[in-house]
Design goal:
300 residues, alpha/beta, Fructose-1,6-Bisphosphatase, Chain A, domain 1, D-Maltodextrin-Binding Protein, domain 2, 2 domains, 8 helices, 36% helix, 18% strand, globular, disordered N terminus
Length: 300
């Protein structure tokens, strides 16, 4: 694998204030980056030796690695930022009335991790609640193969893709571990798969959003995610020039139960497709291979 892929760092940070605020955000991001890397190293140890799995729902897995990672992250965050709150996937609820709140997914992609499938990450997202933004600093750290994907400071080299048509795009999605039989996503998966170069289902929303930000995916959508899944990745996509909305194109917030992230260029097509399908209207037939080719030539 080329060195440009391994050990790469993808960076993003909202800068919306005076110098003092910028410095504080870099401080938050720098500390969070270090904590995420420590949690990643911890997870690598568990991954190498294997872990026993438990169920926290009918089909929703949790492992000792999830809990150990959250414990480490919470301890480090509280030591660095004692006035900040923490909201973690594995049960941490501390200082939630604070102006600053960290959203923590200590192991995004637990099912992959438990099966030895190397697609998982650590997610840290910081929300400044008084300002109502999605996040002030976000970190997504994928450590298993030595690659770090971290939303911590702004780097103009990182950008969403330039793919302008859905039929030329590669997108990603996910399916819920809870109430999966009632999820309508399989219908959207089928339609978008047949109207594009394909849909990838990697099992980690954090990585999917990071991959939209750095142009590996052109779009991503999913139902029923939580703030610890999206807080960092949404910031990455926006700072890399992409868009994050509801399926109808409406404003995304941390309590949103649906997310549509794109490079901005295929947003219109995806929003139109979602709108028509939710409305139960007959959508345009899936093009034949010859029609795909003709459209591609017409777009040149």
């Amino acid at each position: 694998m080329p060195e440009s892929i391994y050990n790469a760092t993808y960076i993003a940070l909202h800068v919306e204030c005076g110098r003092e605020g910028i410095v504080s955000r870099f401080e938050f991001a720098h500390v969070a980056d270090g904590i995420a890397r420590q949690a990643g190293a911890l997870l690598r140890g568990f991954y190498a030796k294997g872990v026993a799995t438990e169920y926290k729902g009918d089909v929703d897995l949790v492992t000792e690695a999830d809990r150990a990672s959250e414990k480490l992250i919470v301890e480090k965050l509280k030591a660095a930022f004692p006035a900040h709150g923490v909201y973690g996937e594995e049960g941490t609820r501390a200082g939630l009335e604070s102006e600053y709140r960290w959203y923590v997914d200590p192991l995004d992609g637990t099912t992959n991790f438990a099966h030895g499938f190397p697609a998982f990450c650590v997610i840290l997202g910081l929300e400044r609640r008084a300002a109502g933004r999605a996040a002030d600093a976000g970190v997504i750290s994928k450590d298993q193969d030595g690659e770090i994907v971290a939303g911590v400071i702004y780097d103009p080299k990182i950008s969403v893709s330039k793919i302008a048509a859905l039929q030329e795009s590669l997108t990603g999605t996910g399916f819920p571990s809870q109430k999966r039989h009632s999820s309508p996503n399989i219908y959207f998966y089928q339609e978008i798969t047949l109207r594009s170069h394909g849909v990838r289902r990697a099992g980690s929303a954090g990585l999917d959003l990071a991959y939209v930000a750095c142009g590996r995916l052109d779009g991503f959508w999913e139902f029923n995610l939580n703030p610890w899944d999206t807080s960092a990745g949404v910031l990455l996509v926006e700072e890399a020039g992409g868009t994050v909305t509801h399926f109808d194109g409406g404003k995304f917030t941390l309590d949103s139960r649906e997310v549509l992230a794109t490079n901005g260029r295929i947003k219109g097509e995806m929003v139109h497709l979602f709108t028509e399908m939710f409305a139960g209207r007959e959508i345009e037939p899936i093009p034949t291979p010859a029609e795909f080719a003709a459209r591609r030539m017409a777009g040149k």
